Amino acid sequence: MDRIIDKMHEAGIKVILGTPTYSIPAWMWHQHPDILLTYQKGGKAYYGIRQNVNYTDPDFLFYAERIIRKMMEHYAKHPAIIGYQVDNETTPRDINNDNFQAMFRNHLKEKFGTVEALNKTWGLQYWGMTINDWDELAPRDGITNTAYKLEWERFSRQAVTDYLQWQTRLVREYKRDDQFVMQCYMPSVQEVDQRESAKEMDMMALNVYHGYQDDLKGDEIAFAGDYFRSVKKGVNYLVTETNAQTIGWNSRSQQPPYPGQMRQNVYAHLGSGANMVEYWHWHSIHYGQETYWKGVLSHDLQPNRAYAEVTKTAGELEKIGKKLVNLKKENKVAILFSHDSNEGINFMPFDQGGSPWENNPNDYYRNQLVAQFHRILYRNNIGVDFVFPDDDNYDQYDLLIIPSLYIASDELLEKINTYVRNGGHVIMQFKSGFCDENSMVRPMMAPGPLKEACGFHYQEFSNFRTMALKGDPFGAGSEHNKVSTWAEYLICDTAEPLAWYDHPYLGEYPAITVNQYGKGSLLYQGCLLSDTLQERIIRREMDRLNLTTPDQQLRWPLITKSGKNEEKNTIRYYYNYSSEPREITYPYNRATELVTGKMVEKGNKLTVNAWDVLIIEEPAR
To answer: 2-91+157-323 falls under which CATH superfamily?
Structure first.
C-alpha cells in the first residue's frame, strides 16, 4: 500500500482511502465462523463473497477498529490523501444473527418500556401472540405482524447508521482538517437511512450503474443525483463508481458504450450536482467475480476507445471544470420520500400478479410509484429535489408530490395540511394517510387526518387490472387513457372531481379530484395512472401554478439541467440521448458554449449531436 500511494503521489493523483471492512480475510472467518451473517429463516452466509459479515458482531468490530486505527495512524499525514471512505455500499444485508435479535429486543424495551405497551401498540392479541415477558418475543423469521416487521426494518437501518457513524468517528480522530469523510451509497435508497448515517460525514458519495447503448436513458443518473443532492442540503456529492466499459457479474450484459456516452455521462453527473466522477475501475481485472465488469482499460491493459474518450473528457474538465463544480439549484418541485411507506407497502402489497396469501417484497413504492413520478419530471425537464418526513417544513417548494404515503404519523400529516393551508400545492397518490407510524390502520374515516385537506372520504377500495377514464379528460388518447391496479371509492365533500372511471359500477366514483384548502390545493389520484396521464396531470399543474419554463419546450431524448456556479453564473446543459442529431432553439440570454468558446444568442438554432452535450454559461445579471 505504501508503494501504491507513493506512486500515486508522484504522478499527481489524489487518493481517497477506504476502510477495508466490507470484505473479511480468510483467517478471520476460519477463527470466528460465527462472524458470518445469519439470514432470515435459517439461511447462513458462506465465505467466498464480500459483505457476508455480521457488522454488529463484537469480534468483527474489534478487528475492524484495530485495522482502521492502524490505517489512520499510518496514512493520515500522507500528502496524497484528500479524504476517506468508510466501508462500502453498506446495507442491512438481511441481518438476523442471534446478537442482532438481542439488540432488537433491547431496543424495544427502551422504546416501549413494557410488554403491555408493546402488545397494545402492535396489536399482538391478534392470533393470540401476546407476550408476557421480553424473552417471549419471537425471532423475525416467521413474523407476520406488520408493526413488528416495520420496526425491524427501522432498527436494521439504524444499525447501518450506528455502524457508519462509528467508523466515521474513528476516522475523525486521526484525519487532517483538510481531509473529508464520506461513504459510497447505492441508488437503492430505500435500504438505508442516508440522512442519519451521513450526519457526521462531510459529504455524500454514490455508486451509479446503468445500461449503455440504447438502454442509456439518463434516468438512473438523474434520480441518484437528485436524491443524494437533497440529503445534505446545499452540499454537493461525489460519484465514486460508475460504468467505464461493460458491467456484470457474468458475460450476459456486455454492452460497450456508443461513442460519446462515457463523456456524456460525466456531464450528466455534473449537471445533477456531482463534484467528481470516478470509474470502477482503472483496468479490467483478470480473475474473480467481476472479470467482466470492465475498467477504462481492457484486459490487455492497452489504450483503447474508452481510454481515448476519458482522456478527451479530462482535457475538457481541466479547462472548464472549475466553472462546473459546486452547482447549486433552486427547484420549485419536490418529491416526498418515505422509507416507512416503502416497507409498509412491501408488507401489504397491492400490485397485480401476486398471490393474496403471500407477500414478496419488491420495493414497489421505490421502484414503481416514486420512480414513475421522478421519471416523468426528468423526461419533461422539470427540476426536482427530494424531501423527507422529518424535514421541518416544505415551504420552499411550490409543488409537493407525495407518492402513496401509506405509513405516516399524525405529525407528518398535519405538516402536509399546514403546507397546503399556507399556500402550497400537492399532488398526492392513493393509500396516503391510511396507516399510522406503527402500521396500524387508523380507526377513522379515510383518509384520516388528511380528510379536510383532501376534501373527500372513502370506505371502500378495489383491485382491478385496467380501465379507461370516462371521456379521456386529459387528452391522453385511447391507448394511454388508462388507469390500473387500485381504486378508492372517493366520495367528494368539498373536492372537485377531475376524472371518472369508465365503468358500470365504479363510474359513480371520481378517479382524480382537486380540493382548494386554505391558500393552497391538493390534487388526489385514487388510482394508478399511466405514464401519459401522469405526465398530463403534472404538466397541467405546472402550467396552473406558473411554474412552466422554456425548459419544458424540450422533452426526452433532449434533456436539460441547470444551476448556478460559484461565480453565480447559470450553467445550462443540453443532452441528446439518441443516435440522431437534434436541434434546439436557445431560449435564454446571451451566453457562451464552454467547450467550443462560441457565443450563443437568444433564438439561435443549436445542434446537439448524437450522445453529445452542450454546456452553456450565462453570465449573472
So the answer is: Glycosidases (3.20.20.80)
